[in-house]
Amino acid sequence: MLMKRNELRILIEGQRVMVYLTNAESIHLISPDVAASIQECLTLALTNILKFYLQSFGKITVNLDVSCYFNIKVGLICHEEKNERCPASCRGLERDALKLSPNDQHLVRLAKQIEVSVFSQFLIYLGLTTAEWEGIVYQYDRNGELGKKLMALYEWKKKREASFS
């Protein structure tokens, strides 16, 4: 579902189809699930269109891999220079974007993606101490690996929001 603040633009430039998914506030508010779904739908549509086109001209399309006719590039567009990738001189995110806080859904997604073996290092990088992580592991051990990771991320979020107040 595209939310009010998200915008999906499809532009045709020569023989290229350019798809832009943007959010009025921050790129970080675009759900990776939404972006992946859009990419899957467009890829499937392009695949079927190419197969139909080839069939119309008598080409056999049984088990034909049409992916060679298009490529997918994923990246960020710099706001300083229209339609260009960010140069080395790019100032990066605005201060307001850095103050954004992930919602619970973002934290669940993140917890599922990070391996347990590197999770403690990740938390330390975010600013939690080893003692805080060990306390969470002790307190929430019965909740399994995902439960411990989630509680650690909730603790980090609470600590981070308190520092911005």
Descriptive account of the structure:
The protein has 165 residues and is mostly helical. It has 2 domains: 6-94, no CATH class; 101-164, no CATH class. The chain has 6 helices and 2 strands; from the N terminus they run E-E-H-H-H-H-H-H. It has helices at 32-56, 95-98, 104-113, 116-126, 130-139, 144-164; strands at residues 6-13, 16-23. The protein has a two-stranded antiparallel ribbon with strand order 1-2. Strand 1 and strand 2 (16-23) form a beta hairpin. Helix 3 packs across helix 6 and helix 4 (116-126) packs parallel to helix 6 (144-164).
Domains, number: 2
Main sheet overview: 2 strands, antiparallel
CA(first)-CA(last) distance: 32 Å
> Roughly how many Å is the radius of gyration?
22 Å
Strand content: 5-15%
Average predicted local confidence, pLDDT: 78
Q: Pairing-aware structural class of the strands and helices?
A: mainly alpha
The shape, in one word, is elongated
Number of distinct beta strands = 2
Low-pLDDT sequence parts: none
- Specify the number of helices: 6
Question: Element order, helices and strands?
Answer: EEHHHHHH
The largest sheet has its strands arranged as 1-2
Residues in helices, as a percent range: 40-55%
Protein name: Death domain-containing protein
What characteristics describe this protein?
Death domain-containing protein, mainly alpha, elongated
Concise summary:
The chain has 165 residues and is mostly helical.
